[in-house]
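Thread: Newbie trying to understand structure tokens

Hi all, I'm a second-year student working on a class project, and my supervisor (Dr. K.) asked me to get a predicted structure for one chain before our next meeting. I've only ever worked with sequences, so writing a 3D structure as a token string is new to me. If someone could post the tokens and maybe explain what I'm looking at, I'd be very grateful. Here's the chain:
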Amino acid sequence: MDNNPYASDAYSTVVKTKLLKPSPRSEHVPRPGLLELLDAGYDRRLTLIDAPAGYGKTTLLAQWRQAWEPDIPFAWLSLDDQDSDPVRLWKHVVEALRRVAPEDEWGADVLEGLGLVKTKHIDTVVPLLINALTDLPHRVVLVLDDYHCIESSDSHEAISFFIEHLPNRVHLVISTRSDPPLGMGRLRARGEVSELRTEQLAFSEGEAAHLLNETMRLDVGADDLSVLLERTEGWPAALYLAALSLQNREDKHAFIESFGGSNRYIVDLLAEEVLASFPHETREFLLRTSVLRRMTGPLCDAVAGMEGSSHLLRELAHSNLFVVPLDEPGEWYRYHHLFSDFLLYELESSRPNLAPVLRNRASVWAEGAGLFDSAIRQAVAAADDERVGMLISRHWFGYVLAGQAATVERWLEALPEASIDSDAALVLVKAWLCALSGRRGEAERFLALAESNSYEGRLPDGTASVESGIALIRGVFSLGGVQVMLEAAQRAAEMESKQTSPRTALAYLGLGLSLHYSGAISRARRPLEEGLRLSREGQPVLRIVLLSALSFGAGDEGHLEEAASLAREARGLVERFRLQDVPQSTSASTALGCALAKRGKLAEAQVELEDGLLVRRRLPGLNPWPTMFGLLALAQVRFARGDRGEAREVLTEARAILEQNPDAGMFPELVERQERKLRRIRRRDGSLDGELTERELDVLGLLAGELSTRQMAQSLYVAPSTVRTQIKSIYRKLGASSREEAVEEARDRGLV
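---
Reply by user tm_fold:
Sure, no problem. This is what the structure looks like when written as tokens:
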């Protein structure tokens, strides 16, 4: 295992210090009663420890872990607000569990399915993880510490599902400052949760006495101890701070008598007293590093502008209760949450202009270490919008490829709208995010902003130019119609042809697809094959779409064996990476359905096509042409199986897409061809989809003339809306999709 706690893949960052299990300190107060409560709840599904900051939740769990390990291994994850991104959350959960799994490759298939595209993890990754946990040969305790940092409803929903289906050999512990929205009422009713709350975690008189007189050797009398316990209401953090302030005081009674007021007053008073007890250099170090969540020597050197931070951190951890080591070698540390708040409050109160400078130093160091999310978080806290924008525009694409689009969205939310709209690179980032999620109108707005921007040269993320970025988005997502897509894809392929980045493969994908949509099927093969050659193993969705497009072309050219082989290869990637519910991967189902249909396997083909459309319809704002492929193929299969009414319904859905997207390449002709086939069959059997009413026959007679809908309504003395309703009914019964078709069909039947 890599011993460098901040060495990780830049775009799918696993912060290894978050997985470190805290060890009880020598100064800790024994809490046997609470440990017994934890033991008693071990056979339940969940233990919830819910109390405000400073009540010793993490310390208690560290004691419990020490009492059970190595008999029962603990997997530990310290959460932060970045873990609201579901991909990041589950990636860290899996990595924490991998540390206590018996096999090195345990959970590898779960990780493969994570972060590839934006997907609903409750449907894909979480069930896979639950299955993997079921196969563990021993019991495991999984600790999610600081769960209050999670704000995403998707993450809460997935955790609820995880709890509901947790195998017996896994016990989940959630430590939080507020009640989590995890269906606790249901779990309580079933007796599946054990809870420890503020009143249980508050120090008893005996525990306070142990801290003050046995651990700190302060010799505080019973009366003074009672007063202090009452004033702090058993708040362990406040008692720790009070104990530090009482050191080397001769008149302890006077201090305790004056100790009171609101919590904020207590916090301010104790922070001042604790800081005052340190030498000036140490105090300066503490204040300057208060902007950090986790600390290591090189980072502190960079931020504090000094040398020897590693040694000082070790000394502070040894002598002070509020510097907590995060690993056994003593390389990474954090401040106790309250102590960190004290220090930061003091820094910002005394030198408000210094904090942004320190945060920018931390941001620069984090970027150099490949911790881009930390770098951006520090720049956001420093209110340095320019640096935030620069970092996002440099590093966003890798996060999106890893499936962490939600993280990029959250970064952008920290910037003023004007800062985004005036920055060409950020405008393109927004356009990408909107197009990925099917927000076509917003994507068009941001593309228009990019087109009006005067930025010249290569973009920070490596895109050749603003023009290339715009062309790539239009060429991949078909914003503006098939002809616009083709022209854009051609420009993108020309401008990105000298690159070997994922953008080059995407440009060839857009070119091949747009050629196919235009009807130039044979010409589409070469760019699609080139895109496939340039795509990487870690980009399965891109490869699925490329393989599927090649399968469509092979099938249309009569190469049925090749079409089936390509489609099955694409389908294999879907199954390997568990991407069945990902809209972009549905092209594999459509391609396989088409290949099966051409070989006469209609029932199997219909299952594949319907599955693909079911997923794709969830995001109607996505590129409409893959949906059209599925609809046309399904209409053909249903027609061939004798389900003409269902085939007609599918074609009606396809016709609605054409009405919304007039620049539709080859698709209008394909739809019209199938509609004509249905009409010919209907004329032979003479059946109607319902008898025409007398009023509908009147309207039908007027349709043969040149009157408008309003004029027909006036002629019949009814409202225009009534006529429109009757016209729709006539179309349905005659199997027509236009006025001309309805009149032609009516004449063939002798109705007009």
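A couple of things are worth pointing out once you decode it. Strands lie at 46-50, 74-78, 140-145, 170-176, 193-197, 295-296, 323-325, 332-335. The chain has six domains: 16-201, 205-276, 354-403, 416-535, 546-686, 694-748. Feel free to ask follow-ups in this thread.
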